[in-house]
């Protein structure tokens, strides 16, 4: 069953992105693309990228070199879009403090672009070992981007917990899905790297594809299933450091 190009392999490769297309249609019809434009872009881009790579994989006329070059380009563009999604989640998390939200999002986007360039630089200068040059560089680039993205998404959860900031339901669902994918990818890679197993790469691929399928199902739940919010009386929230930082940052920007 756990074999490359088996029925399960094809299903796990295509099914999440078919769901993403449907989810993107729902997001657009509900007007959520205006609140989460980066996530909406990611849904469409990731699905198109997967369909292109899948077609290139099954077509015998496409060489491995061409496939990995397209994979490289798609990985870089997709990484930048993921950084934009994380910045979007930060903006939603800080929506009660608009100045902090704008400044934090811009800083995160700039940092994401710089870290993507560093990841590309690290991948280009890595030693290929027993793999071909493009494959080895692609693996290093993948791990570098996932490591940075994992750290940023976990920072959002720690930040929200420390300052007791409530998540928006949709933003929380998006963040949970990405957090599971990023953490699983890095953890499984680290564990399997030290274990000698036959077809280790195929097992890792199945784990990654299965986890991403779970991620898309989580997004479907948080975006499609209506949430019944409890009716509570309006109570003034205590002021925290974020309110003070927002005021001071606004004052500095106006000078």
What's the helix and strand layout?
Blueprint: H1 7-29, H2 37-58, H3 64-93, H4 98-124, H5 133-163, H6 169-193, H7 200-224, H8 241-254
Helix pairs in contact: 1-2, 1-7, 2-3, 3-4, 3-5, 3-6, 4-5, 5-6, 6-7
Output the keywords.
255 residues; mainly alpha; Rhopdopsin 7-helix transmembrane proteins; 8 helices; globular
Characterize this entry briefly:
This protein has helices at 7-29, 37-58, 64-93, 98-124, 133-163, 169-193, 200-224, 241-254. The chain is mostly helical and 255 residues long. The protein has a single domain (7-254), classed as Rhopdopsin 7-helix transmembrane proteins (Up-down Bundle).
Structural overview:
By secondary structure, the chain is an all-alpha fold. The protein has a single domain, classed as Rhopdopsin 7-helix transmembrane proteins (Up-down Bundle). 77% of the residues lie in helices and 0% in strands. It contains eight helices and no strands. It has helices spanning 7-29, 37-58, 64-93, 98-124, 133-163, 169-193, 200-224, 241-254. It is globular. The termini are far apart.
Assigned CATH class: Mainly Alpha
| H and E string | HHHHHHHH
CATH topology: Rhopdopsin 7-helix transmembrane proteins
Structural class: mainly alpha
Give the overall form: globular
- The low-confidence runs, each spanning 5 or more residues with pLDDT under 50, are 230-238
Number of domains: 1
Q: What average pLDDT do the residues reach?
A: 82
**Largest pleated sheet:** none
How many β-strands, per DSSP?
Answer: 0
Instruction: Give the second-level CATH assignment, the architecture.
Output: Up-down Bundle
User: So how many helices?
Assistant: 8
Beta-strand content bin: under 5%
Radius of gyration: 20 Å
Helical content stands at: over 70%
* Straight-line N-to-C gap: 65 Å
């Amino acid at each position: 069953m756990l074999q490359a190009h088996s029925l399960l392999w094809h299903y796990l490769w295509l099914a999440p992105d078919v769901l993403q297309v449907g989810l993107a249609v729902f997001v657009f019809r509900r007007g959520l693309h205006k609140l989460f434009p980066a996530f909406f872009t990611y849904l469409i881009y990731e699905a198109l990228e997967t369909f292109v790579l899948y077609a290139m994989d099954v077509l015998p006329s496409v060489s491995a070199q061409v496939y990995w070059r397209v994979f490289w380009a798609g990985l870089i563009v997709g990484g930048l879009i993921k950084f934009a999604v994380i910045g979007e989640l930060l903006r939603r998390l800080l929506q009660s403090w608009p100045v902090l939200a704008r400044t934090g999002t811009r800083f995160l986007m700039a940092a994401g672009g710089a870290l993507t360039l560093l990841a590309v630089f690290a991948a280009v200068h890595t030693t290929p070992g027993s793999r071909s040059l493009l494959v080895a560089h692609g693996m290093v680039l993948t791990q570098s981007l996932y490591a940075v993205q994992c750290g940023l998404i976990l920072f959002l959860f720690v930040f929200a917990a420390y300052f007791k900031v409530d998540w928006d339901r949709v933003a929380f669902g998006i963040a949970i899905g990405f957090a599971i994918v990023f953490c699983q990818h890095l953890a499984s890679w680290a564990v399997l790297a030290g274990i000698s197993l036959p077809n280790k790469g195929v097992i890792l691929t199945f784990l990654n594809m299965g986890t991403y399928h779970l991620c898309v199902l989580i997004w479907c739940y948080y975006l499609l299933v209506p949430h019944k919010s409890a009716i509570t009386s309006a109570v003034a929230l205590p002021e925290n450091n974020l309110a003070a930082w927002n005021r001071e940052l606004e004052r500095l920007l106006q000078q």
